[in-house]
């Protein structure tokens, strides 16, 4: 796939770069509204997320001259960023959606940029991860209220309850850390046993609250590559109320900042995906701003890592 659909507004008004094979940036953003539907013909509940997140931040949050106390560097950390637009989606063709997302992400990786995806439901990260084969081996760091280790639901094996199960089958995924799970968590005892047997390190939200986010940071292998997979229902719903299945508790904003910075002190961030946001259920655009801020901090961290490749930790 050479070019994507132009969004109404790019993320933080970054330049639009329609040709993913002609990039010269540190970070490249794409939107993907549709992954693999459980009911063909039905739009994703998170189909409008990328548009809302792109429009979330005002000028004072996107001025690269401003010092960002979250990332502890200037806004965006000196990173060069482009927005490549949206992957075309088809409500009746999950396989085609996966193929197009994978092709777009693979093209970004071939250009040398770090891909950042704005989904879409939690089936969208499956082709996002798949695109890394031949490019990077990596550890998935998933923030999610749900375990997502179901093999299939209603005969569908690539839906949003199977994301981490499918990731575990990919040779480039060499580790998995899952934090924020709570409540029913989309899993039965068998899926939990399978996840642990594979080697996934699981940190329920109450353990994070009791023992701190630092234990999640410590689970990231030193010197590894990491892809953030942030299902926003893994966050405290007071931060992002626009979600399909709100669950009490969750990861807080400052915990996420500590997590991002801590991961960067141990590993290289090679990708990030934000999924499961429903702007129709948001309150005054607040959840969209939280997501956009977290994306901005990750961008700044990537920028800092690329500027100082010998010392990946943010200062």
Q: In a few lines, what is going on in this structure?
A:
By secondary structure, the protein is α/β, with parallel strands linked by helices.
CATH superfamily: Ureohydrolase domain
In the CATH hierarchy, what is the class? Answer: Alpha Beta
Strand content: 15-25%
How does CATH name the architecture? 3-Layer(aba) Sandwich
Determine the fraction of residues in helical runs and give it as a percent range.
25-40%
Task: Write up what this structure looks like.
The chain has a single domain, classed as 3-Layer(aba) Sandwich (Arginase, Chain A), CATH 3.40.800. It is of the alpha/beta class and 315 residues long. The chain contains nine helices and ten strands. The strands form two sheets. Strands 4-1-5-10-9-6-7-8 form an eight-stranded parallel β-sheet, with helices on both faces. A two-stranded antiparallel sheet has the order 2-3. Helix 8 (253-266) runs parallel beside helix 9.
Secondary structure blueprint with pairings:
Elements: E1 27-32, H1 49-54, E2 67-68, E3 73-74, E4 81-86, H2 94-111, E5 114-119, H3 125-130, E6 138-143, H4 163-168, E7 173-179, H5 189-198, E8 201-203, H6 205-211, H7 214-218, E9 225-231, H8 253-266, E10 268-275, H9 286-307
Parallel strand pairs: 1-4, 1-5, 5-10, 6-7, 6-9, 7-8, 9-10
Antiparallel strand pairs: 2-3
Helix pairs in contact: 8-9
